Amino acid sequence: MNQKKKSRIEVTAMYLVLLVVAVVIFYPLIWTVGISFNQGNSLYSSSIIPENFSLDHYKWLFSAESDYLIWYKNSLIVSGATAVGSVIFTSLVAYAFSRYQFVGRKNGLYIFLLLQMFPVMMAMVALYIFLNMIGLLDTLTGLILIYLGGQIPFNAWLVKGYFDTIPRELDQAARIDGAGHLRVFWSIMLPLAKPILAVVALFNFMMPLFDFLLPSIVLSSADNYTLAVGLYNFINDQFANNFTRFAAGSILVAVPIAAIYLYLQRYLISGLTAGGTKG
Amino acid sequence: MQIMGRESSHYLYGTAYIKGVIQMALPDYQQEDNKETGGRRKKKHSPALAVFLSILFAGLGQLYNRRYVKGICFLVIEAAFLVTMLQSINYGLWGLRTLGTIPGTDHSIRLLVFGVLSVIGIFFALALYIANVLDARNQARKIRNGWKPSSFRNTISAFYEYAFPYLMTFPGLLLMIFVVIFPLLFSVLLAFTNYNLYNSPPRNLVDWVGFDNFVNLVTVPLWQDTFLSVFSWTIVWTVVATTLQIALGLFLALIVNDPRIKFKKLIRTVLILPWAVPAFVTILIFSAMFNDDFGAINRDIIIPLIGGGGLPWLSDPFYARIAIILIQTWLGFPFIFALFTGVLQSISKDWYEAADVDGGSRLQKFRHITLPHVLFATAPLLIMQYAQNFNNFNIIYLFNEGGPPVRGQNAGGTDILISWVYKLTFDTNNYSMAAVISIIMGGIVSCFAFYQFRKTRSFKEEGEI
Question: In what residue span(s) does the ABC transmembrane type-1 domain sit (chain A) (predicted)?
Fold first, then answer.
């Protein structure tokens, strides 16, 4: 009886903790949704439960006045290209590192991973000048190339870890049957590594969507802005004035992304632990 | 095109491959036999001469070895290199050495960029050149030992065999060189110049100043004070924020994993929500909520519950730091939670049953079974969390732009090293000092990471094809 009582108290305490955490999680999210339905522009007169419920800000985003849809399109282009490109580049590199012997194999990835620990700020100055020299400044292409190059070391390391778990007997058998290097890669490695490649694609789709530092340096004309830069500019100029608009714009991006994440979270985690921690 | 051709003849190619493996595995004495058959040729062909020729001009050694196509390729490459690149590389090196001589005409920073690119170009040319010399030497040795050059077709396929991993990594390597290596070299070099607002090109020239910037950082009081306070806050921030998010994630994972808790799936979805919402958005939202005057935290929570005029979340360094740590915990715990939940489910029940038989208490079970399992499986990812927070620019900058300002320092109260570097670079244009601090930061984090990577076995050698 005593044991049972103790257990019941424990369970109640656990639910209580979870309830508190849930409130803390939901409060800012609901607050944002509430703010976005407020009529005015200023944060001061807005409240979590709007006094004058209105869809003005959403309507404005889709009106001809705003560049919101262009930014949305730009972001999708950058993210899509980065996702596809990253899968191609990293899987090629990871395949070589996992299965072949060549100069620099032992420490190559290592060195790049360590070099990447250096902060990117100074790199931005160099990249800015370099992009300017080759005429890719203020273009989406330049931005995509930087994302692609920067993601290779970490993701190649993840994918290599996964490739290493695919038994070598499989590709050796294929080789004896006469398959060439690319054939083994294409018909054996890639299909078996689908889970980790999906993770890489997803991460690289998400990462540029809300990266704000790099695009804010590379892109200068409003037509080329990605969502993060555009949204930041809503509130950067006059903080209190456009916050409601920012809230509305953010919700329209955050909701689909959150949905994808929640739907795929199981694969994300298993991919990360499988690739990253393989002993 | 080449791939299609190869696929049609892959059977033949496969056997050739196996033969090659067998040949490599032949014991030494059998290879000696092979040598004897070509003994007559032995004296005629000298590897030393081949090496000498190929050092003289790439490709000559190969021509001497009667590998005409290869030799001509090398010849053409070197000739093209000399004709097209020599002048610009020379210019680049000159620029790197002098950083320009005429103010207003020479743009020091462009010259620096050009110089770094030239150095990278030279490195590649040298690698190719060394490959050429080694190739000539090896081939000459083989010829001396009686090796008969195989047909052109076989040579191509042997080359493909050898070069395949390089071909695979080349596109990635090229991108990484321009995005990772080149900017890094550039910023390391910047640390030894006096590039700042006052002598920035094109009007003025930048000069090499040696270690002056490093010396200034530790001797000039303004820099010294700022560096020490920013550095110590960076360490506190990294340790406290990351440990908090890991602890909270672990705690919640343990609770939700308890068999007595129901609606697990729903609870997990809710707890992962902060991870799913883009951090960029949530940080800006929190920044508005923590606003001193009209933020929701002060207006709806602090003032009604505690009274007074609300807390100075954005204008007082202490409260701003608390707020930032709380926000990071909110942002970071779901990832850890999801990670640990996965691991907890994979721990075998046998362990706990064995512990029950031995009469282990709950705390003992946690300490000796759960914790080691969880930490062992996720250590690299946890370490990465620390490294990420050390470099977590977004939260510091988006929350309060590193503010509030602190008297006697040129960094704000919540500035960590990376956001300080950002300010030095883009606000005050003190590029050289920013580069110095970048180097120090990079050194710290990569030492840390190096130690970690050595411990993970992902990099250990395994057998290969």
Answer: 72-264
